[in-house]
Design brief:
The complex is a heterodimer of chains A (366) and B (182). Chain A is mainly alpha-helical. Chain A has two domains: 30-155, no CATH class; 188-325, no CATH class. Chain A has helices at residues 3-20, 23-26, 28-49, 63-67, 70-78, 80-96, 100-120, 126-140, 149-157, 163-167, 174-198, 206-212, 253-263, 266-281, 291-310, 315-324, 327-342, 359-365, and strands spanning 223-224, 239-240, 345-347, 353-355. In chain A, a hairpin with a 5-residue loop joins strand 3 and strand 4 (353-355). Chain A is globular, with a radius of gyration of 25 Å. Chain A starts with a helix and ends with a helix. With 182 residues, chain B is an alpha+beta fold. The relative contact order of chain B is 0.12. Classes of the chains: A mainly alpha (366), B alpha+beta (182). Strand 1 (223-224) of chain A pairs antiparallel with strand 3 (58-68) of chain B.
Chain lengths: 366, 182
């Protein structure tokens, strides 16, 4: 790097980075709205477009569809192109942040309707279930608008002073804790379900080994038995099996061989299964500061592993986890390290970063 | 007096009542489905991969056979615009509905778990499919036989059982499997 480039990097760019970086955590809910609304809206669009296909007229099931009047339901299903156009508009408004809360609320309603139809037809989208709830919460909680066109308009009208500080303004935190609570509940429930439905034997790794061996990679749906004999049958049906969508499509033969070895190594399967259940049932630890980031990184690692092994990366969960990592603590830690090395930056009391000699030092002098 | 009361009310609304309502709206249904071990979108107890399967487990796969002029063939599910996977999951979740506490889609109510209610529900599943295949695809089936293929954990067939049949002429499902007799 030339001396000139180094000067540019270490002065104006560095200063700009110090101003912008805090938006990662100060506008956490704004980023959450932008990213999740985009993904949710795009998938809703695909679902709505699928209404073009004629299907057998089976009854509709589920609490939400029970609430929607049949006339409204049929009208929506009859005009997929119009509903899809509305979804596009609502998604754009929700992402850029114009009429944000009404647009997001309407998008959640349409998205919930589309996913309820999908559930009624046999596909329960577990990834969308958390996203739907988080977006619903974002409609009402403070901080959702922190990064939005309407927030910029307010700044413009208020005299256009200190944009970054305006964007990184504080808001009440209860909404963040509620989203964190939904994440914690979802993970805890998942861990408890393994113990409730699979029993302690779930920890021995047999179930994981079964799925990794790829029997459920195709379209065939098997059902797990084990329940009591009834007047209907003596199969004791409990639940259908879930798909391993990555099996047969692993990135390399070496990787496939490694997965096969894992699927036939009971001790390792037991360790992974036990660690997974422990990690999941400890979801409420997300409320303990500092431990939270470790848990979130562990959850991201879990999803990435499941994604590699079974094709279910749950990217929306990972996105929520990523944004809720305590970046303010990471930044403070890095700032201290950098300060020791170069003395370039400090963290302000309100969580923003500034170069040494900037506002914080001037404040002390004053 | 009035002007100071209004902001206080507004503060209470924003700092207490709104958080309580929003939190209750999402947390209470979650608590209910987790306590019951059920799911109904978007609330879920997250039962994915949770039921135990080991190398000695027996698995059960439903198979539908359409019968026309005494000739039987696999029901052409691909002709219904529904995937095989979603159709079979839909069938178990909303129609066959397991009768055990350890199923998220269980049906244990006295009313709907009776033979009459069960057979009516099964007919609700097959009637639209058979009518769709007739009306949209020109495929006529007098009957749909419902089999359960019993397989081991490697997918190898152990045996098949016919559990019931749907009669297109009468739009009735008749459950034939007699568990007690086995």
């Amino acid at each position: 790097m030339t001396i000139a480039m180094e000067r540019i990097w270490r002065t104006p760019l560095q200063a700009l980075a110090y101003r912008i970086l805090p938006l990662l955590w100060r506008a956490r809910l704004g980023w959450l709205r932008i990213t999740l609304a985009g993904v949710f809206g795009a998938h809703t669009y695909v679902l709505v477009k699928s209404w073009h296909a004629d299907l057998p007229a089976m009854p509709y099931h589920g609490w939400f569809l029970d609430l929607v009047p049949a006339g409204v339901r049929d009208m929506l299903l009859q005009y997929p192109n119009r509903v899809a156009a509305v979804v596009v508009v609502l998604t754009v408004l929700s992402v850029i942040g114009l009429g944000t809360r009404p647009a997001l609320f309407a998008l959640v309603l349409v998205g919930l309707f589309a996913r309820s139809i999908e559930t009624s037809q046999g596909v329960f989208d577990h990834e969308s279930s958390l996203t739907t709830q988080v977006l619903f919460v974002l409609v009402f909680i403070p901080g959702t608008n922190s990064l939005s066109a309407e927030h910029l308009i307010r700044w413009w009208r208020a005299g256009r002073r200190d944009l970054w500080r305006h964007l990184a303004g504080t808001y009440r935190r209860w909404g963040e804790y509620l989203v964190l609570g939904l994440l914690a509940i979802t993970y805890t429930a998942s861990g408890l379900s393994k113990l409730r439905f699979g029993g302690v034997s779930w920890l021995n790794g047999d179930t994981l080994g079964f799925y990794l061996r790829g029997l459920t990679a195709g379209d065939q749906v098997y059902n797990v038995g084990g329940g009591p004999v009834t007047w209907r049958d003596d199969f004791g049906l409990e639940m259908y099996t879930y798909g391993n969508y990555a099996f047969g499509q692993y990135p390399s033969a070496t990787f496939a061989a490694a997965v096969d070895w894992l699927a036939h190594t009971p001790a390792l399967l037991a360790v992974i299964s036990t660690a997974t259940v422990l990690l999941e049932v400890c979801g409420l630890l997300l409320f303990i500061p500092r431990l939270r980031s470790i848990m979130l990184i562990a959850y991201m690692g879990m999803h990435t592993t499941i994604g590699l092994l079974m094709g279910l990366p749950f990217l929306q969960y990972q996105l929520i986890c990523f944004l809720f990592i305590e970046w303010e603590l990471v930044a403070a830690f890095l700032a201290v390290r950098l300060a020791r090395r170069n003395a370039p930056a400090t963290i302000e009391a309100d969580g923003t970063m500034s170069p040494v000699g900037g506002p914080a030092r001037e404040h002390q002098r004053g | 007096m009035t002007s100071s009361v209004k902001p206080a009310r507004s503060r209470t609304l924003r700092s207490v009542i709104l958080p309580a309502i929003v939190a209750a709206t999402v947390l209470v249904p979650n608590a209910i489905v987790i306590a019951l071990g059920t799911e109904d979108f978007p609330f879920t107890t997250a039962p994915m991969f949770a039921h135990h399967v080991d190398p000695d487990s027996t698995l059960y796969a439903f198979r539908f056979e359409g019968v026309h002029d005494d000739v039987s063939e696999p029901l052409p599910v691909d002709q219904t615009n529904l995937g095989e996977r979603e159709l079979k999951r839909q069938f178990l979740s909303w129609y066959y509905r397991p009768m055990t506490q350890t199923s998220p889609f269980r049906d244990l109510s006295d009313q709907s778990a009776t033979r009459d209610a069960f057979e009516a529900r099964m007919a609700e599943f097959f009637r639209p499919i058979v009518e769709f295949l007739h009306d949209e695809r020109g495929l006529d089936y007098e009957r749909v036989d419902v089999f359960v293929d019993i397989v081991d954990a490697r997918g190898d067939l152990i045996r098949s059982e016919r559990v019931g049949r749907y009669e297109a002429r009468t739009s009735e499902y008749i459950h034939e499997y007699e568990a007690a007799a086995r």
